[in-house]
Each structure stands twice: as structure tokens, then as C-alpha cells.
Specification:
Number of strands of chain A: 14
Strand order of the largest sheet of chain A: 3-2-1-4-5-7-6
Oligomer: homotetramer
CATH topology of the largest domain in chain A: Dihydrodipicolinate Reductase, domain 2
CATH class of the largest domain in chain A: Alpha Beta
Shape of chain A: globular
Structural class of chain A: alpha/beta
Helix content of chain A: 25-40%
CATH superfamily of the largest domain in chain A: Dihydrodipicolinate Reductase, domain 2
């Protein structure tokens, strides 16, 4: 089998490891290159001992800049690196899926939210936002995909159909809860088990970079501008993001109407599960899968709707969604190599 | 030592156990009665093995109805029981601190929020809401105290000073996160470790009974009516409540102004810690203590303020606050037997 | 596709859910019957919401006794039930894999260790112990397989090659550590998150029924009788068993010799990973996979060897090993539908 | 109040923080000096935010070498530092309690187990092993106390009375399980929450330095030499050590005899709780307290006894035991400032 020659740049992090794990189960993908910085020179199994039993175990991580002869590259690098690396790859006809934030926002937003001037605005304008359930057609032919952030994914999927149908009206308050794996592999003492167990704590309010991403992606998806307030919180978990969006329900909007709108919007979608009325989303249930669970209901007293989404931040919130995008870009079945059942409990 | 003769009715639950633990460290309190239902006949150490080393270890739990010769009774019983038991105690001159919801709301709210007609509305009208930092003077002479819920405590403490000073304006969205101990000792399979680890999930939106309590208590505390939307969430922790309140910042309100208002309001309070600018509340830090941590800041783009509070739901959110109320009612130093330093890490 | 018609009796427990999840990914298996007791009448997705997205979601659980027209039945029932149900299935030419303890011990051991007289000793004598790495040939033609317990699996795999080669000599002390999922889905208050977080505790010493299973299986596997002392412990995890076996190293036995023996014994085995010298086993690494990690080393001062194994008790310790046995019994590739890479982190 | 002028050298670690917390609750102790290395110049509340509400919050940490005018110094420094610092303090008549391993072993053992030649063997010979329940008389007049390690404390307390009475006979296998706080505050990626949740793993077998400490302390306590094999394991907890000692029961030794021996040995001891027959030790129950729980039973089939101990490694396993030693050295009531009830759940 020839296969799509794929590289993972930034293979030593959690997202990198998950990309490798999923890619290894993909019948059309050939894992042709692993790139890293500090990890260059080590083998995959040294960096990710849980991959010791895989066929790629002894593959050696190479300097990021040595990537060549690839059909597609996943960039799982720190924010700010992808945008310097992607152009050369793209010009060499390597398709790129960026898992950092480098191609998610308008150019003007980068200084404020990411602290750098965007170095490749021409490519930025061509990037497609990699949320398949909303941008599937554009993704099929895409050369550069901006894989969405873990928080924006459930927020955009949950709100877009409701905004479009006029069932809810901005502004929106998004309260995010996440496990620690989103903080990355070398997150320091604050990410230790000792500091995390029994700790519930907010962080980076009001300046988390997923806020402008939510606003931008919702505008792209619906044509509607909504103002977002976003506060993320860390809770003692490893995988899992749950977002609770609070938004004004339009006059007459009922819980049933919200549920029907979501069900209609995502009918037939393999990775979106709209919960039946009364059911509650649970990050544990989607652990290890590419599924996002959605629920919505109205508090009739206050007229506020709560639109809630749950996913595994390393799968549907990162590596799994990236594989889904690869499948679209390369014309494979969209669900290839992507579990739709979580490893529960 | 004469001592205040105190009874704990509902001694076998987590709150009951914490009341006993704290009462045992109180030099002016004599633990004169332990009452239970299913646990009647068993000793304290059988029901709470961690109390095996205490002087009360072999005290036998008696039927709740056998309480007598007490100066004060803590009622840590299921909602709906306190209101049938309290009147007889009060008429026998036993002061009562109710840790259930039976004396927290106006009579008219009980059918909707608690599912019963209130059986003792005359006493209900005399009940004082047991939030010392806001109702200290009334508590000093009180005979019947409604100990606040775990979620309303940080919400009311955080919002009241800001509403009073006109720095924020309702309505308010309250996003609550809690560990599992608040669900009680026999909470079933959904509270198992297997179902809880890695699980982030909402529950009981929009009908949690702490919502009307927040509205009622804020009105009592400030004279201002605010409409609350409240969504609680379970996260994989044992102790700990963190509440994130989203509310419109008034024109010109800054993060500094919010911080100053809180600092001023709680200057000298032994159990309220207003965090310095930039610091983030953390439930782990107050674990085992009677302290509530508060922080507030404004998102200048959206004009929304986030007012955040963290406490240990079994201490400041239940048993500790009840002891604080006892201290006030009995004229003891308000901090007696109450830790102001958490057991960290 | 015709497919092997498979039933899961006891589908509502954790092991049952895991059997269904793995069977759904098996191209040669048709999930033809789900049986339960209290859960009969409910659909699979009601009982296991994480399976809501699967093709079997709306399959209804039927009374256990209604199983018919099956090629193979997994019995994931409480101890003592399988032995009453299996004979009728076997006589109707349904092959049986029992995940309880009903066919693991000699008949004489049942009264003492399981509290019942074995009702079908003729079948018991025909049962094959389902540890593929040691009894592969017998399993190929087996009609009745006793799937091993979660603790015995790593103990037997770790010790057998070392005993056979005379590198170690009994008796053996086995210290087991396990997460809570092994205790089952309705394990009561002691299995609550509140009672489990921060709790490290022994249980059921010295009377755990996996002790005689270890002795019996080691004798079957090696022909050598060793006396075992076994103390299991609960630690705050969901999945995961780690067994530490302490045994006298024979004169001259080195850590290198132990490692070589294990490596030689399991060369080419897809689900046994012998760790390189100095590496430490980790249950987290094999989570969700059918892999067992083994390590062995000698304390030269005391002459005691520590032989350590780690696995996921629901996969290699239960449902995964059962699928591995099905693959052998039915002549499929032994690794079909079984992950050899854990979902890490 | 005059008070005992006490310093904590190494105040920024977990043990340092716990020493400060307990010392702040001690009516006879004046916290006169906080010393650190990297943390020097910062205030206590910056280093330990949970101590922000304490009277010492704004105390500044000073270079370790600046300690002066103290009556007693706790050394909570990395192994190898105490032995270079202690002599000058002792010569200046400052009593010393060392919480590192620098004064726990014979001089000859240091190169092998700690990697350094002991620099002050004269003082080492005068050090008293700080296990109050066994060396109380020597501790009363001691100037230099070697505070025991977290694993040796329950092992020595559990085994010593049984060895002395001839109820058990060495050698002993000790299987240790511990939470992560024992690894210290800057333990790196392996101590992250992401790497710890769901991870059960051995470490540092057979070379953990608590092994020779157990052997040495048992010999000191009983005059009997026993050979120990020791394998420690990390489990997903913060506080808590549980040790399971496997040892040959002497001919005729029963579970009852073991229980009676322990009960007799520790009658009246405020911090040792011998569990009733059938009860199981639990680290969660002693969390935050200075209590060690002990149990012992015999497996009549194998003739092996399991002697099990549970404690909070930061309290009875470190800071609490150190305060207990201070109380003895200074002639205070031995239980002052030490909780005998855990913060449960």
C-alpha cells in the first residue's frame, strides 16, 4: 500500500502522542516522519513508553526542520512556531493541519492574543477552520487547516445552530472546565498531582486566547457576531473539556425547541451526539473517543439557556479532529481510525 | 466546666461527622446527644471510624426523637425533616441551627423548590439566615438559624458588597462546581469512584434549590432583587465548592474597584480572604478550613465581571459555618474551634 | 457476513460493557444476545450510555435464561451463577467463556473459597484455563473456558517462566493493588468517590479467592506447587491491577537472568511486554489495552526477587482476555479487535 | 509569652509548610525563623498561599545560613544538607530535629545509601531516633533527633512488638504504597497529575534508602536483626503511606495473639490506633492527623503474617512526628498541637 505519507511535528507532547496512536490505526496513513525539538534523537518509545508495542516504537524523532517528502504534516508545536514553519511545507506541496492557534484568528488579533505579529498572513487567509461539522466542503480541498481549540469546538457546535435559527441571542458567557492534559506535558508544579487533586480553580480570565477564537469561528459559521465572555477552570481530571454556555433564549424558545434544533443540525453526524431531554453531558463517557456530547435547555424563570458540550480534549478537541480533517482533505471515509465509543469507565 | 449542651441530629452523614469533629475541639461545648435514624443504636466510631480516637468514640447514636436536655441542636437531617422536628425543640428552649434547607426560603417557595408545604411558618419567619459576615447582629440573639447552603455562601459573600456599591448589576449567572461530598453519604452508583474519576458533568439545571436561596439571601443582605441563573456541576473532588458569578459591570467599574470593595467589606473578617489582584481562588487551599476565598475582575471587552468564591463545602459551606453561628448565638469568640488554615496539600 | 453469533450474559456490569465494546469492533462477531437480570427490558444505551453511539445501542437486554441460537456465550455473571447456567448452554453446543470464578478451581475448593458446592463437576473437569500465553493449544479446541481472574493473570505470567527455569523458588508473597472497577458496578458506599480518593487500604486478607487460583494455575502451567500468600489492596484508581510477587531468588540468579527468561518466554507474544532493565511497570500505560507489562529484579542483599506485572483489569484482566480466548477458540487471528496500545494519558 | 524560639530550615517544601502550620497552632512555640534556598527573600504567603491567613503570612524566608538565636531548629532540607548545617547549630546550643535522612543510619551506610561520606560522625552517634513510642526516654533529653522516614515509622511500630514477643520471625518483606507528596514539591513530570491519575507503579526497588533505616531502627528498638526486602510503590494519592509487612508467623501464632500484642504495646499511646479484629487500615482515615493505624493477621494456610500500618506521610510520617519530638524534648505535653482525628472525608 502506498499510503499517505504523514509527519507529526511536535511528536513528544500529549497531542503528538495521540496523533501517532491514532495514525498507527489508520490503514491509509504511513507515519513517515516524527519531528521534535528537545526530543530529537530519541526513539518514539523512549518519549512515549505506552507506544512501545507499536510498529513505530523504534522510529527516531528528528529535528523539526528535517521534515521532507511528506504528503501531509500535523503541526503540534507551541503557539507561534507553526506560522513560521508552515509556509515552507505548503510551498513544497505538503498539506498542513496546524494544531496550535497560529491559523485560527484574523491577522490583526495575533499581537493582542498570542503576542506576535503573524508572519504569513497570505497563508493565514487561505486557512480553513477545521470543524468538519460546519466547514466540511471547504475542508475537502484544503491545503492548510487550522484545527480548532478544545474549548471552541463544543461551544461553536452547540451555539451555531441555535443562533442561526434565532433561538438564542448573544452575548454569551462561556464557563469552561478542563482536565490537566490541555496544559501540556511540562506544565510545572501547578500541574502536579499534589497541587491538582482536590483543586478547583479558574485561570487566565479574561484573557484566554480561545475567547476570540470562539467569536471568530461563530461569525464564520453563522454570519452572526456574538460577544463572548470566557472563563476557563481547571478541575482534577486528565482528559475532558466541558463548556457551559449561558445565553438569552429568544422569546418563546423552549428546551424542546433547542433540542430539536441540535438534533436536526447534527442528524447523521458520526461524532456529534445530541443528548435526549433530561440527560446530562459527561466528559467521562466520551473519553478516548472523537465524540462531542451536546445538550441544551432553558431556565424558564430567567429566560437563560444553558448550552453544554463535552469532549475529550486530546481527541475531538485536538488529535482526533485533526485525523477527521485529514480524512476529509485526503478523500478517505471521514470516520476512518476514529473511535465513536469511549473507553468507559 | 459547665459547657453548652449540644446535640447533633443526623450524626451519621458527612456533615454530621464534621460537626462532631469540630465540636470535639470546642472548649465550651459538651457533646450531649447524637441522633440518627438508621444509625441509631450504633456507636460513633462504628459510624465514623475516623473518630475512633476521640473521647466521644463510644457514644451511642440515639433515635432523633429522643433528644432532650440540650441547649442547642444542630439539625443535619434530610430536607423536610428539620421543619417537623425543630418546633418542639424550640418550644423546649433548645436553640436550633438547621443545616438543611427548611428555614432558608419564604414559605411560599417550599412547594416548588422542596416539594412540601412548610409545616411551621411561624418559626420560619423568626429564622435568621446564618451568614455571619452579613447578619452577625441578628445571629447573636437568634434561637433558630438557617445555616446557608454551600453554593449560596460564596455567591452572597462575593456579590453583596458589589451590588450594594452599584459596581455590578443583575441578572447574574452562577456557574457552580463541586466535589462529591455535597451529595451525601449514600449517593449511589453515580457517586462511585468509578463513575466520578474523569467525569465533569452538570446536574439539576435549572431546578437546583440553591438558586432561590441565592436570590432570597441577596435580597435580604442588600435589599436588591437580582435574578439568578444557576447551573451546578460535579467534578472529581471530595470537598470543595467554587462558584463563578457572571454579572454586568456598571459603567466605569474596574477590577481594582471590585477588589477594593471586597477588601473593604471584609476587612478584619477572620474567615473571608479577598485575594490580591491576579491571584486565583483554589478550593484545595481552603480544604479543612472555615475560610472562603473571594476574587473579582472585569473583562473590559465584554463588560462582564467574574466574581469567584471558593470554600470547603463541609466546613464554611456547612459544619464550620454552623459552629461559627453557635459561637455567635452563645456569645463565644466567633473563631473558637474553627481553623483558618487549610490542610494543604 | 455470517459471523459468530455471540451472547453476553451479564451485560450491564463493567465487564459486560467492555465485552460489548470490544465485540462491536470485531469483524467476525455478531452481537446476537444481551442478557441481564435486573437490567432485563432496558436497552443497551440506557444501561451503558457510553455505548449510545454504537450500532447495538437500542438492543434490548433480555432475561439471562432466554439465550438461544448462539455460537458462543460470555458469562459475566456473579460467582455461582455461571456454573448453574453453563451446562445447558454447553449441551446445546454453545461454547462458553466464563468470566466468573466458577470454572477456575478444582471442585473441592469451591465450598471453602466460593461458598458453594460445585453443581457441574463433569464440565468443570473439561474447562480450560483461559490464559492464552500458557494454554494456547488447549484453548484452540475448547468448548468451556475459565477466563482468569485479574490478579492471577500477571502473577502466573510473571512467575511461571521463572519457576520453570529454576530461577526462583516458592513460597511466594503476592501484594496486589487494584483500582475500584474490579469491585463491580454496585459496590456500595465503600466504593464511593468520597471514600476512595486518598484511601489506600487492604481488603479480604487472607481469604481472597484469587489466592487458590494463583496456586492452581501455577501448578497447571508449570507442574510446580508453590504456596502463595496474597494480600490485595484498593487504591484510588478505576482501572489497573499491579501485582508485586516476592519470591526467593535461587542461588546465582541475577536481575539479568530474570529479564532474559521473561523475554525468551514471551518473545513474539503480542500482549506481553517485558520491560527493559530499570524500567518500571505502570498500569496507566496499559489502560484500555490488552497488554500486560512484566518486570523482574533481584535484591542482591536479601536474595529476594520482585516479579511485577501490570494490566488493565477490565481488558487483559477480563474482557480483552476473553476476546483473545474467543479468537483462539474460533480460529480467528488472536489479536483481532484487541488494542495493543493503551489510551495514554 | 516567652515561648520556645523555633526555626524551620527548608520552609518552602511540603514538609516545611506542614511544620509551619502545626507550629502556628502550638501555644508554646514562637516561629522565629524561616529559612530557604531558592525561596529566600519571599514571604511565607507567597511560598505557601494556604498560610496567607496566618499570623506568619508576611514573615520573610531568609537564607538558611542566617539562622540564629533559636532554641530549636527543624531541618527540612534535602538529604546531605542537614549533616553539614546541624553541627554549627548544635554547637550554638540550638537543639535540632532533622527531617532528612542524615542522622538515621550508621556512618558506614551513608556512602552506599545516600551517596556521601557522613561529615559529622561524632554528632551522628549522639542522634536519637525520633520514634516517640519506642524511644521516649532518650528523646526527652535529646539535643539532636533524627526524625524517622515515612515508611519506617509504621513498619517499626508494627513489627517491633511482635518481634520482641517472638510472635514473628524475620526476614520481612515490606511492600510500601505512597501518595505523591512524599516525592517533594518539585518532583517533575512524573509527578504531574496527568502522569499520576490511574497510575500504579513501583519505584526504586531494591535501593530505597528506607530499607536500611527499617533494619537499623528495628535493631535499635528490639535488639533483633531482621533482613528487610522493601519495594515502594506510587499510587494516585497526595498524602498517605500504607505499609504491608509480610513475615513468618512463629509456630502457634494466631491473629488474636498479634492483635493483643499490639494492643498491649501501645495501650495509652495517643497516636497509635490498633484496629479491632477484621478492621482494615485506611490512609484516608488518618489524613491530617498524627495517628498511625496498625493491624496484624495471620494467613493460617501459609503461616505468613501481614502487619499493616497506615499514616499521613506529612504528619506522623514527618512534621507531626517532629512536633511530637519537640514536645518531648522541651517537656511539653506530648500531644500539644497535634490532631488525633483526621480530616475525613
Amino acid at each position: 500500500m502506498a499510503g499517505l505519507r504523514v509527519g507529526v511535528l511536535g511528536a513528544s507532547g500529549y497531542t503528538g502522542g495521540e496523533l501517532v496512536r491514532l495514525a498507527l490505526g489508520h490503514p491509509e496513513v504511513e507515519l513517515a516522519f516524527l519531528g521534535g525539538r528537545d526530543s530529537a534523537g530519541r526513539t518514539l518509545e523512549e518519549v512515549h513508553p505506552h507506544l512501545a508495542g507499536s510498529p513505530a516504537a523504534s522510529l527516531r524523532i528528528q529535528p523539526v526542520g528535517d521534515a521532507k517528502d511528506l504528503d501531509l504534516a500535523f503541526l503540534a508545536l507551541p503557539h507561534g512556531e507553526s506560522s513560521t514553519i508552515a509556509p515552507a511545507l505548503l510551498e513544497a506541496s505538503v498539506r498542513v493541519i496546524d494544531l496550535a492557534g497560529d491559523f485560527r484568528l484574523p491577522a490583526t488579533a495575533y499581537p493582542e492574543w498570542y503576542g506576535f505579529e503573524h508572519p504569513s498572513t497570505a497563508w493565514l487567509e487561505k486557512a480553513v477552520y477545521g470543524l468538519p461539522e460546519r466547514f466540511r466542503d471547504q475542508l475537502r480541498g484544503a491545503h492548510l487547516v487550522a484545527n480548532p481549540g478544545c474549548f471552541p469546538t463544543p461551544v461553536v457546535l452547540g451555539l451555531a445552530p441555535l443562533l442561526e435559527r434565532g433561538l438564542v441571542e448573544g452575548p454569551v458567557v462561556v464557563d469552561g472546565k478542563t482536565g490537566l492534559s490541555g496544559a501540556g506535558r511540562t506544565a510545572g508544579d501547578a500541574a502536579s498531582h499534589v497541587a491538582t487533586e482536590e483543586s478547583i480553580r479558574p485561570y487566565r480570565f479574561p484573557s484566554h486566547q480561545h475567547k476570540p477564537e470562539m467569536e471568530h469561528a461563530l461569525a464564520l459559521a453563522t454570519g452572526i457576531d456574538v460577544r463572548i465572555t470566557f472563563a476557563p477552570h481547571l478541575v482534577p481530571a486528565v482528559r475532558g473539556v466541558l463548556t457551559t454556555c449561558y445565553v438569552k433564549a429568544s422569546e418563546g424558545t423552549t428546551t424542546e425547541a433547542l433540542g430539536s434544533a441540535l438534533a436536526e443540525a447534527y442528524e447523521g453526524e458520526p461524532f456529534v451526539r445530541v443528548l435526549p431531554p433530561g440527560a446530562m453531558a459527561d466528559t467521562k463517557r466520551v473519553r478516548g473517543s472523537n465524540v462531542v456530547e451536546l445538550q441544551a435547555s432553558v431556565d424558564p424563570r430567567s429566560g437563560t439557556a444553558a448550552v453544554i458540550g463535552a469532549l475529550d480534549n486530546l481527541v475531538k478537541g485536538a488529535a482526533g479532529q485533526a485525523i477527521q480533517n485529514l480524512n476529509l482533505m485526503a478523500g478517505f471515509d471521514e470516520t476512518t481510525a476514529l473511535p465513536s465509543i469511549g473507553v468507559y469507565p
